[in-house]
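Thread: UDP-glucose 4-epimerase, structure

OP (GT): Posting the sequence first so everyone is looking at the same thing. Length is 237 residues per the record. Can we get the structure tokens written out before standup tomorrow? I want them in the notebook alongside the other entries.
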Amino acid sequence: MSHVGNIRRVLVTGSSGQLGAELCRQLSGEYQVTGLDTAPGPFTQVIGSVDDRALVFAQVARVDAVIHVASLHAPHRELLPKSRFVDVNVQGALHLLEAAAEHRCQRFVYTSTTSVYGRAMEPRADAAIWVTEELAPGPRDIYDVTKLAAEQLCQLVHEETGLPVITLRTSRFYPQPRELLAIHRLHRGLDVRDCAWAHRLALESPVPFGLYNISARSPFRREDLRVNANILTSKRT
């Protein structure tokens, strides 16, 4: 693919994680990629946290685009206080957005999650839920709340500064037992390689602002929702 504008140097946060590492691998052949993470990894050149404002500004000053993958995730809820989620997921995102705007980056891609839909995805009594970007989020916990807050900061900074921003609400792509993976791939699963490719497409998109769900194609159709809900209900009873 051709580069959009003059994007050559890309900062990827969370570069030691599953998605970040795959993304760096896919980009490294055509871009100068700098990986930032709190943990070492084969694609990580900078060790540090996104809530370190000075570090963030220093690194963003050297690149043309930012892909912000780093995050505290749902499993961290039992290990860390809520304030730490705010520090990393919200304040960290704001540091990156402000740095990208100040240094006139040509693209900012934010990795969010379909988990922000939360309670809105819970099936009703008579039908399952068809999830699109038009479904209003219903965050359930500190992870959902902070990811949604970062999305809103993305929109705010775009509107105030013109920074080109694309947010990707990704489905589950982390390793799971086969029986769970098979179920999730039916309605909210995603292969990490496809997830990384979606981030590259966002990086290279000319769209000034966008928010998109990223998930595997479902075998179900909208008209199946009520039928499937009835089948599930009858089996439970």
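GT: Both are above now. Quick notes for whoever picks this up: Strands lie at 9-13, 32-37, 46-47, 65-68, 107-113, 165-170, 209-214. The two ends are 53 Å apart (CA to CA).
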